[in-house]
């Protein structure tokens, strides 16, 4: 594969080249890994930045529907929109790909949209790297907005919020009990809460739910990156396409204020550092899973059990074999 010409086609915004490059960064093959690194290094020179918006919410809350409506609205404003998904639950992946194809029907036909479902059966670490690199590819391909969708399971919100400029939490209208169900951690990550399905019979409940969350947000925190009035809770209807323009205006105002305060750049720098450290950790842990390392661990472990070696002496021997000086 000619990496340079693939890179040049990505810089021109060609979606087929972008899709091919994402397949390359997803590959576990060592030669592909080397090509992916070469490609990403080549593209990093473009220095393009998209607005990265992370979007999380429980199954059925309307993420796909929201992305379709919101994405279409952005496209009508002349923007180019990429959609990526982080879905570490392998059982759901097949279904969600099919579901999203039908739910993002209009968006998937737009030439200024690019939709990439999550690869199935990857562990979270692999998904994180693949998503980060896919984001970088979308930025090089001059997408104005990159939406990163994740279903709220386990650690995936943290992963997505650590690669987003804005993190949105989509919630369903519900009684006060539901409020307890949202983990404090995710409330603290959210830059904006959108209560979806504010239409028809659900409208009144959605308005109440939104007021509850707005109250909770005010009680919960004041972060340095939040200007006056943020974080906000708002109601939207993805189906009736209600509240989307207002939500977008708020997002833009938040972005502008963070750019002016320097938080935007500081946050991106901190995220890069975070991922660097994560990569080092992951690579070190991977060294422990090679057949040789497993054998050594078992062997040394047996000596520790009989008292032949102290735990710390055995650990030193193990580490010396993993990290030869
Ligand atoms: N009334 C109403 N229904 C909605 C709205 N948005 C989504 N729905 C419905 O909610 C259901 C789930 O929507 P999806 O967009 O598939 O939800 P999701 O969060 O992507 O779900 P998963 O992909 O399974 O996690 C569908 O039946 C939608 O039609 C809305 O704004 N109003
Ligand atoms: Mg969905």
TrEMBL record:
GO terms for molecular function: GTP binding; GTPase activity. Coiled coil: none annotated. One of its GO terms (cellular component) is cytoplasm. Gene3D superfamilies: 1.10.287.130, 1.20.5.170, P-loop containing nucleotide triphosphate hydrolases. InterPro entries: GTPase_ArgK (IPR005129), P-loop_NTPase (IPR027417). Belongs to the SIMIBI class G3E GTPase family. ArgK/MeaB subfamily. This is Arginine transporter. It comes from Ruegeria profundi.
């Amino acid at each position: 594969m000619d990496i340079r010409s693939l890179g040049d086609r990505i810089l021109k915004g060609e979606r087929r080249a972008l899709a091919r490059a994402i397949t390359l960064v997803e590959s576990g093959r060592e030669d592909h890994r080397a090509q992916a690194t070469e490609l990403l290094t080549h593209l990093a020179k473009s220095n393009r930045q998209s607005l990265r918006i992370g979007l999380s919410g429980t199954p059925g809350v309307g993420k796909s529907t929201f992305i379709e409506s919101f994405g279409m609205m952005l496209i009508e404003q002349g923007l180019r929109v990429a959609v990526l998904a982080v879905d570490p639950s392998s059982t759901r992946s097949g279904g969600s790909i099919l579901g999203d194809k039908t739910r993002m029907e209009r968006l998937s036909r737009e030439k200024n949209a690019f939709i990439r479902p999550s690869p199935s059966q990857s562990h979270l670490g692999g998904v994180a790297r693949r998503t980060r690199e896919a984001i970088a590819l979308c930025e090089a391909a001059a997408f104005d907005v990159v939406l990163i969708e994740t279903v709220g399971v386990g650690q995936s919100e943290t992963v997505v919020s650590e690669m987003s400029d804005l993190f949105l939490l989509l919630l369903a209208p519900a009684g006060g009990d539901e409020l307890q169900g949202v983990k404090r951690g995710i409330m603290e990550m959210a830059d904006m809460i959108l209560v979806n399905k504010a239409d028809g019979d659900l409208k009144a409940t959605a308005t109440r739910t939104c007021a509850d969350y707005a109250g909770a947000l005010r009680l919960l925190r004041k972060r340095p990156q939040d200007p006056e009035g943020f974080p906000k809770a708002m109601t939207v209807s993805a189906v009736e396409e209600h509240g989307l323009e207002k939500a977008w205006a708020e997002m833009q105002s938040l972005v502008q204020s963070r750019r002016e305060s320097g938080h935007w750049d500081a946050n991106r720098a901190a995220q890069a550092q975070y991922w660097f450290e994560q990569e080092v950790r992951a690579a070190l842990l991977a060294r422990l899973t090679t057949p040789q390392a497993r054998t050594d661990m078992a062997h040394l472990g047996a000596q520790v059990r009989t008292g032949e070696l102290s735990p710390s002496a055995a650990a030193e021997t193990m580490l010396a074999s993993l990290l030869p000086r």
